[in-house]
Amino acid sequence: MSRNLLLHFRPQQISAAALRFTLTWGLGGMAALMIVQQLVTGLLLDIFYHPLPVQAYESVQHIQSTIFLGRLVRNLHHWIGHVLIVVVLLHLLRVFLSGAFYSSRRANWLVGLGLAALVLLANFSGYLLPWDQLSYWAVTIATSMLSYIPLIGIPCQELIRGGTDVGAATLQLFYFIHTSFVPATLFFLMTYHFWFVRKAGGVLISGNKTTDKQEKRNLVPVVPNLLVRELSFAAIVTSVIVIFSMRFDAPLGAMANPHLTPESVKAPWYFLGAQELLLHAPPLVAVFFLPLFIGSFLILLPFVKTVEDKTHPLLKTLVLIGFGFLLILTITGIWFRGPGMRLMWPW
Predict the structure, then answer these.
(1) Band of pLDDT at residue 212, cut at 50, 70 and 90
(2) What is the pLDDT of residues 98-134, one digit of tens each?
(3) pLDDT class for 15, splitting at 50, 70, 90?
(4) Which residues, at least 6 apart from 334, have a Cβ–Cβ distance to it below 8 Å?
(5) How many CA atoms does the CB half-sphere of 213 hold within 13 Å?
């Protein structure tokens, strides 16, 4: 197995058509790059971080104000984590629209869904670690949504919190998930994700009708053709992230106070769509049935019978409408909800 993994991870030659940037927009490679950057910056931050309520907040302050380049490293870790969610969602959407999840690619679609879930889990578990008012109450709101799930909602909520309320046990559990479980699982699944891509013949070229003989004539060496493009794109993405992180600091409010509820309490932005939906639909629908339907739909999608492994245009339209609806809910929750979740203009 290990021998096959090494052989198929990166081929010696690749189709010239696969080098076209607009084929994938570099989203998969960008996600992989950001995951590696998160692992590196996370390891650096972990040297000085202490996963206890008061010490956690003080250690983050120490990293920002005392440690050499500590502020920049934390900014990088914070902003990359949020951008990574957007990149992964766009990557999933691109794979869906191109139909690159049928036949031999079914297993890789499922692995990709697992990676997307892990990226969300990484961000959510890391959200609490600064232990300031914003993170404490955001996690409190997000975990409180679980109580609407019938039968298992309350037990799941208490399991995730390590008790009835968000506290020291929650912080230590989130720290373990964020620094141990998620990185190890991400590394394992990401390795197999790339292996599955290579095993399926590389990136799917939509509308490719060339014969095997024509395809062989169109092959070009990976080095330097693909390698130079990947390194150049990685350098551009990294430069933009570093410049942005030098200009904008990761937020850090006052230390978490369980007895002082802020005027405006919101879940993390990637869960704001669900929180916004709670204001317009029954909680059972917003928190249980709709996520269950979406998850089941994404898992079963590759097994739906198609013609020539092509996604039906109607299905594409429905998914785009759903994606747009989620985007509107999220934007509304971020910019158009003020104190007490009242609607307001953002300017």
Answers:
(1) very low
(2) 888 887 788 899 999 999 999 999 999 999 999 999 9
(3) confident
(4) 269, 272
(5) 0
CA gap 214, 219 in Å, rounded: 9
Alpha-carbon distance of 161 to 157, in angstroms, equals 6
Whole-angstrom distance, CA of residue 291 vs CA of residue 285: 8
User: Measuring CA to CA, which residue among 119, 125, 130 is closest to residue 249?
Assistant: 130
Largest CA distance in the chain: 71
What does the alpha-carbon distance between residue 56 and residue 188 come to, in Å, rounded to a whole number? 29
Distances, alpha carbon 212 to alpha carbons 15, 20, 209, 218, in Å: 11, 20, 10, 10
Q: Is 157 helix (H, G, I), strand (E, B) or coil?
A: helix
Q: If residue 174 lies in a helix (H) or strand (E), which one and from where to where?
A: helix 168-176
DSSP-assigned states of every residue in 118-155: HHHHHHHHHHTTT-BHHHHHHHHHHHHGGGGSTTTHHH
Which pair of tokens denotes residue 58? 């003080």
The ranges assigned to domains in the chain are 2-265
State the pTM of this model.
Answer: 0.89
Q: Which backbone phi and psi does 74 adopt, to 5 degrees?
A: -65, -40
Q: Whole-number mean pLDDT of the chain? A: 87
Distances (CA, A) of 155 to 31, 142, 144, 151, 289: 34, 15, 11, 8, 18
Backbone angles phi, psi at 14, to 5 degrees: -145, 150
- pLDDT-derived band at 275, boundaries 50, 70, 90: confident
2-265 CATH, one of 1.20.810.10, 1.20.58.90, 2.60.40.10, 3.40.50.300: 1.20.810.10
Look at strands 13-15 and 219-221 and give their pairing.
antiparallel
Task: Say which DSSP state 263 is in.
Answer: S
